[in-house]
Amino acid sequence: MTSANAKPAPLTQPEPRTAAALSRPVFFIGFMGAGKTSVSRKLARKLGLGAIDMDTYLERREGRRVKDIFAEVGEDGFRDIETDVLRELAAKDPLLVSCGGGIVKMLRNRVILRESGFVVHLRVGVDEAASRISDKSTRPLFQNLDDARALAEERAPLYDDVADATVDTAGKTVNAIAYEVKRLLEKEGILCLPPK
Ligand SMILES: Nc1ncnc2c1ncn2[C@@H]1O[C@H](COP(=O)(O)OP(=O)(O)O)[C@@H](O)[C@H]1O
Ligand SMILES: O=C(O)C1=C[C@@H](OP(=O)(O)O)[C@@H](O)[C@H](O)C1
Ligand SMILES: [Mg+2]
Fold this sequence. Notes:
Layout: E1 21-22, E2 26-29, H1 36-47, E3 51-53, H2 54-62, H3 66-90, E4 96-98, H4 107-116, E5 118-123, H5 126-132, H6 145-162, E6 165-168, H7 174-187, E7 191-192
Parallel strand pairs: 2-4, 2-5, 3-4, 5-6
Antiparallel strand pairs: 1-7
Bound molecules: adenosine-5'-diphosphate, shikimate-3-phosphate and magnesium ion.
Magnesium ion binds next to helix 1.
């Protein structure tokens, strides 16, 4: 029986969710070789989510490779372009974004990351990173182990400072890391999955 002042049933029910969705952008940070690009891509494929790799996006936008940008305008010039791209991507509908390893260097980037997304730090040791990267010519700041170690040490507190979550990647496959990140994003309420 319906009472006189009961609300009428809505004409349309909300559509049940049919695809995975993110409540905020997810930014992958971590040292070169941590697997930011690979894990983000794997997760996007597994879940049918959109993913953008900052370096790939930036290279297309600029029409030149990262190493050529470094050679032509130096690291400072590269960092300016990188911040521009970060601002652009942070303003889009939520995506998986794999950042370059140096994104945390500039305070302005750390502010954007913290304010606009959920930040996942993929942690890797320098020796393991070096063993993963076969072609170091594409990474101007990973040319020898001593310099890479010093850089990693300098950046470690910056990654910790900005990360909402950290995943240790040592000895794990890209697939296993992607699964761990998926569970973590679900638990944090960042990833909403359709009912099975
Ligand atoms: N967990 C992993 N185990 C083994 N190799 C990996 C792993 N993650 C990435 N790689 C390899 O290391 C290289 C760098 O990975 P990439 O995803 O580009 O790292 P990043 O974007 O963090 O620099 C690639 O050749 C990739 O296939
Ligand atoms: O650590 C860095 O300063 C850099 C990391 C690179 O990206 P990956 O971390 O994806 O290799 C790329 O953005 C550029 O060579 C600078
Ligand atoms: Mg990358």
